[in-house]
Amino acid sequence: MSNGSSITEFILLAFADIRELQLLHFSLFLGIYLAALLGNGLIITTVACNHHLHTPMYFFPLNLSLLDLGSISSTLPKSMANSLWDTKVISYAGCAAQVFLVVFFISAEYFLLTVMAYDRYVAICKPLHYKTLMGNRACVHMAAAAWASGFLNAVLHMAKSFSIPLCQGNAVDQFFCDVPQILKLSCSHSYLREVGLVMFSVFVFWWCFVFIVLSYVQIFRAVLRIPSQHGRHKAFSTCLPHLAVVSLFIITGTFAYLKPPSISSPSLDLVVAVLYVVLPPAVNPLIYSMRNQELKESIGKVIVISRMVVNTGKFSSALQE
After folding, report:
1. CA distance 235 to 230
2. Which SS3 state, helix, strand or coil, does residue 186 take?
3. Do 28 and 75 form a contact (C-beta atoms < 8 A)?
4. pLDDT, mean over the chain
5. For residue 83, what are the contacts with CB-CB under 8 A and spacing of at least 6?
């Protein structure tokens, strides 16, 4: 295979070759996927249907849940289908689409987490100017900028990755198509075009990381100046969910892409990718709802109303029979 045009499909890395383990992998991923759909779906429904939650504090987690749903849906369904049907194949177009979606959702989520750090900074350090700086229009513009930046980043990476010749076969050392894995298949003289774009993305992500760190340095300084212990606890509690999500995202992402080559292996890369791609979308809803009493109560009301609707539907069906 001399170039990308002669490749019609890619071979993904399988979790297991034994049929029983494949079915176990399918069941495990199905449970995680359903949990992620339920958790993020509840947050989206709750925030969208409760006008009391139409504030920046809940608007950004709603966008985060949408991105988490997109992120986990771009990788897990294909992996589950491959395990269920005992295959490793993904089409060329499917691989390109997966690269685009993975980069899009992960990039947009990172940019959104940066915006959320600014939101917490303004709320804690400039509370008197919060409504002015974080009005509805400003929040919509910031969220739209995060989505648009992720989209642009994804378009550029997909276009570059699949425009270079591929000379190293079509076996991808991962359970989904990703930019680093596609670059491993490229010809040695041509991958530098994409590496430049990767380095630019790393540079942008680094400055986002610096912005998040500086924001929290200012936040912690402001919180420690609050005289009452109750006030400090309340201020910290509004920041902890975001800080936990950011830490989980950055730690798993850094280890996935920046770990030393000496400790790299297909098995380790597989486990790290699961922690990076699968774990955050499934855990983020729990992190955000666990310490937010108002959100927990609203989610509880949505669940109760859903049960009432289901029971009413069953009762109506019974009457019709």
Report:
1. 9
2. strand
3. no
4. 84
5. 14, 15, 16, 22, 23, 25, 26, 29
Distances (CA, A) of 98 to 32, 75, 79, 92, 103: 19, 7, 12, 10, 8
- CA torsion 22-27-29-35 (nearest 10°) is 180
On the question of pLDDT at 103 being above 90, the answer is yes
Q: How far apart are CA 80 and CA 70, in angstroms?
A: 16
pLDDT tier, 1 (very low <50, low <70, confident <90, very high otherwise):
very low
CB 250 within 8 A of CB 209: yes
Structure tokens at 35: 């949990």
Residue in this structure with the two tokens 């959320």, named with its chain if needed = 116
d(CA 224, CA 73): 41
More confident residue, 33 or 227: 33
Query: Is residue 159's pLDDT more than 60?
Result: yes
Q: Say what the pTM is.
A: 0.86
d(CA 173, CA 195): 18
CA 321 to chain centre: 46
175: CB partners within 8 A, 6+ apart: 12, 13, 14, 15, 75, 79, 270, 273, 274
The pLDDT value given to residue 98: 94
Helix then strand count (H, E) for the chain reads 12, 2
Is-contact 150 138, C-beta < 8 A? Answer: no
Residue 225 structure tokens = 């100046």
